[in-house]
Design brief:
This protein is an alpha/beta fold and 363 residues long. 28% of the residues lie in helices and 18% in strands. The chain has a 10-stranded mixed sheet with strand order 1-2-3-4-7-8-9-10-11-12, with helices on one face. It has a two-stranded antiparallel ribbon with strand order 5-6. Helix 4 crosses helix 5 and helix 6 runs parallel beside helix 8. The longest helix has 14 residues. The N and C termini lie far apart (41 Å). The structure holds S-adenosyl-L-homocysteine (SAH) and iron/sulfur cluster. The site of S-adenosyl-L-homocysteine has 17 residues, from strand 8 and strand 10. The site of iron/sulfur cluster has 12 residues, from loops.
Length: 363
């Protein structure tokens, strides 16, 4: 706005229109004078909101979207809408409202017309980290998303579902395609836009990283008002196994990651999440669970563990864990006094579940 000779406060009006009112056309920015609107259109400006170009709907209500990026290329990213969430984003007790929410009914809350859902957002097109069990890895890194493209996915999905921020209970998880901490400025730029302009709470946001230590160190310096909750993709009980399935572990070991996480000043009752993808026969045995319990306890962090049964994908040679193995693993951690949740796979039938995002155009 300043560049085109407008006062700086016009930016506030513009941001309000894009992120609160979710307008998609300059002509809809009613706080701008008519002549300003006309001038912007004549000069070739547009509201570059990412567009949902394809929708895949799962039997369980999950929707996967192909979202057209704005990089001037034809690359799309994926975002996912999960009504009721997947058990992965709650349960750390950091949100006081959780207690009363637990009495609410599933999905749209009883009689109130309120919605609850979790939106999973992408940070990069593809990913360079190359975790062996993840389908996104197969794409390699195509490019980074801009802050506007990341926040824009959220705006597009909120708009599609008519979400009213403040009335509806929507969580965001930055767990889609890509590694947020390898696109740090755009990722945090998006969070700041969504918090300061969109009115969303960072306590209802969780970012997941494969363990990019310099990124975690930067994250530790973010002020609490704009800092999402943190999840670490642990996925193994020790460096030997982790190094096999996540090559990034050869650069930053579990101990280095934990050390960096310790620098994050958690809010009262906030916990760090350790995500753990269970790969049949690889990291899902009782001795692994015992090792994970020791590791989490030794870290001294207020933590919880989210178990995710591996979701299969073409060309990846792992096995889904046996149901008994998942339950035995869960019980071992619970018995060791560690809060542990099993993530529900959401939208597996449409390739929307964790680690399945790969711009698949098949439903
Ligand atoms: N790049 C970030 C966030 C995206 S991946 C990260 O790795 O943390 C989000 C989660 O999905 C991670 O915990 C990852 O370990 C998990 N995941 C990846 N592939 C998976 C698969 N095939 N099945 C289940 N979970 C998977
Ligand atoms: Fe990238 Fe996360 Fe997939 Fe690893 S699990 S390849 S970091 S998206």
């Amino acid at each position: 706005m300043v560049e085109i000779g407008e006062p700086r406060w016009r930016w506030g009006q513009l941001a309000e229109a894009i992120y609160r009112q979710r307008i998609a056309e300059i002509s809809e920015i009613t706080t701008f004078t008519k002549s300003l609107r006309q001038r912007l259109v004549v000069e070739g400006w547009s509201v570059g909101r990412p567009e949902i170009v394809q929708v895949f709907r799962s039997a369980d209500g999950t929707e996967r979207y192909l979202v057209q990026g704005q990089g001037g290329d034809d690359l799309t990213v994926e975002a996912v809408w999960m009504p009721e969430g997947d058990n992965g984003e709650t349960g750390d007790g950091s949100d006081g409202r959780e207690v009363s929410d637990a009495r609410d009914s599933e999905g749209a809350e009883a009689g109130s017309g309120r919605q609850r859902a979790t939106i999973c957002v992408s940070n990069q097109v593809g990913c360079a980290v190359n975790c062996q069990f993840c389908l996104t890895a197969k794409l390699g890194l195509q490019r980074n998303l801009s802050a506007g493209e990341i926040a824009g996915q959220v705006v597009a999905v909120l708009d599609r579902h008519g979400v009213e921020v403040g009335r509806d209970r929507v969580n965001l998880v930055f767990m889609g395609m890509g590694e947020p901490f390898l696109n740090y400025d755009s990722f945090m730029g998006a969070v700041r836009l969504l918090v300061t302009e969109g009115g969303l709470s960072p306590r209802r946001m969780t970012v997941s990283t494969s363990g990019i230590v310099p990124g975690i160190e930067r994250f530790a310096h973010e002020p609490a008002e704009v800092r999402p909750k943190l999840a670490i993709s642990l996925n193994a009980p020790n460096d030997a196994i982790r190094g096999e399935i996540m090559p990034i572990n050869r650069k930053w070991t579990i101990e280095a990651v934990v050390e960096a996480v310790r620098r994050v000043q958690l809010r009262p009752r906030e916990r760090v999440t350790f995500e753990y993808v269970l790969l049949g026969g690889v990291n899902d045995r009782p001795e692994h669970a015992a090792e994970v319990a020791r590791l989490v306890r030794k870290s001294g962090l207020p933590a919880k563990v989210n178990l995710i049964a591996w979701n299969p994908g073409p060309g990846i040679a792992y096995d889904t864990p046996q149901a008994e193995a998942v339950e035995t693993f869960r019980r071992a951690l619970a018995d060791a006094g560690i809060p542990v949740y099993i993530r529900k796979p959401r939208g597996r039938d449409i390739y929307a579940a964790c680690g399945q995002l790969k711009r698949t155009v098949e439903g």
